[in-house]
Structure to design on (283 residues):
């Protein structure tokens, strides 16, 4: 089994707010991240695909296919977007880095034609990242 | 299950020396690191917690509380210190980065779990870079669930 990782970057804004909670409670839990005008990050996404090396090509999957897939499924949806307002799932789900990573998994996993999605790693800043393995 | 990692930095000095060995054996074993005056590193610490995303907050763990815990338990204790003088642990233990990595894990294990505010978030990994070229990882000896 070989693990292939492709990295991509996107920039987006978001804010954290749970409508089921009071304004005071939102501010207490989320602090500055609760500002409804949003704030932004340069996200770095790492997508890891696991699979066997195809003897015919020497590859697990065509990395260009993965790039095209990430462009169409993730970048189109999230790059230079206000996540809360422009990505439908985040109208009802708080766009924390945890939830963005899970959402990216859901977008990418069913579209892979070879190999198996192993890990989504998403950096919100160079000093903070989350990982999701699909379970 | 989501794995959340936060990166921290601290600087400290140490000397690698085992009092139970001869001067020659120490020199052979530790080389330049046995210099009695010590030497220093800029350590990069990564702390990973694993847990379910709390539907109320969308988060695994409150980062402010994680920062406060690591600051109080690790950075306040080790940053800008001589590790060999840490009486809590390194009086009798050689402060290699392996041992430091394990000590940080054991120090944080209960503190982070207790701060999680729920049963799910748990300390998963401590990764410690001594230089840009070498790093050490410790999972608390629980091999199940280790994902690299």
């Amino acid at each position: 089994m070989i693990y292939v990782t492709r990295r991509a970057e996107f920039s987006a804004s978001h804010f954290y707010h749970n409508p089921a909670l009071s304004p005071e409670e939102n501010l207490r839990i989320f602090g500055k991240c609760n500002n409804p005008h949003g704030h932004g990050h340069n996200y770095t996404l790492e997508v890891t695909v696991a699979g066997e090396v195809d003897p015919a090509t020497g590859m697990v999957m065509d990395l260009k296919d993965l790039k095209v897939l990430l462009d169409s499924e993730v970048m189109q949806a999230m790059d230079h977007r206000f996540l809360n307002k422009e990505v439908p799932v985040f109208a009802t789900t708080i766009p924390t880095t945890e939830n963005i990573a899970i959402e990216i998994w859901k977008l990418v996993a069913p579209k892979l034609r070879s190999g198996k999605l192993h890990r989504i790693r998403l950096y919100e800043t160079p000093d903070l990242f989350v990982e999701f393995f699909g379970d | 299950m989501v794995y959340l990692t936060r990166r921290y930095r601290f600087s400290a000095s140490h000397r690698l020396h085992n009092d139970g060995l001869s001067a020659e054996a120490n020199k052979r074993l530790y080389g330049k690191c046995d210099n009695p005056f010590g030497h220093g590193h800029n350590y990069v610490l990564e702390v990973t917690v694993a847990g379910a995303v709390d539907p109320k907050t969308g988060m695994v763990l409150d980062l402010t509380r994680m920062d406060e815990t690591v600051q109080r338990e690790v950075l306040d204790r080790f940053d800008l210190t001589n590790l060999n003088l840490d009486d809590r642990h390194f009086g009798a233990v050689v402060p290699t980065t392996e041992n430091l990595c394990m000590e940080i894990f054991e120090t944080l294990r209960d503190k982070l779990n207790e701060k999680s505010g729920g049963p799910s978030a748990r300390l998963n990994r401590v990764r410690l870079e001594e230089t840009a070229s070498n790093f050490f990882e410790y999972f608390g000896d629980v091999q199940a669930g280790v994902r690299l």
About this structure: Chain A has one domain: 2-132.
